[in-house]
User: What shape does this take?
Amino acid sequence: MNTDTLFSKPISKQFEFDADVAAVFDDMLVRSVPFYKESQALTRRFAANALSEGGIVYDLGCSTASMLLEIERSLPKNGTVRLVGIDNSAAMIEHARKKTEAFGSRIELVEGDILTYPYEKARVVISNYTLQFIRPMQREGLLRTIADALEEGGVFLFSEKVVSDDPRLNKELIDCYYDFKKTQGYSEYEIMQKREALENVLIPYTMNENVSMAKNSGFKTCDVLFRWANFATFIAIR
Assistant: This one.
């Protein structure tokens, strides 16, 4: 796993999931997302529960396919679950293919647009820190598409960076997060550089906005499985 040092030098463009990011993405996730492994373990558990009788699981913005590989390892090897990862980054899909081939995985990988993909009926849809990169005007439409694609009782598991309605609390949450990143070896300069690169690219919602959006899009319920400061993992049930 390559070490993330992308923002140790001056940035020249906004953040994008290009070859440079793909090469260090696994390290970036673990060091940039608090309790990443724990939240992913919860996602894996609830996904496996919903897939007990088989079905399709889609990972939207699958990046290097780590989540799908974890789910695949937790399931019986009877072939009743179809695992599909979709990402619009060719570099991410290339890294995902190398990983899945190395593990002899049967995961299907698609370079495509999650907004227009022709989904089949699924039991599980996963979106890890992906919705926040979708333009707000398109976000609720995507959730309606996801809800329509899920079978009755199917689940949508998604993790997002969140903000607070209270400006003072929001600043404290951000400070808390930056302190976490420093403990992971990132310098103040790297933190500042990444923040600037993500400006107007990553647009987070509040906890309530995420829950309301899910319920307005056709989900019977939406609840929080995990939260640490300004990071949260949700489950929405069709």
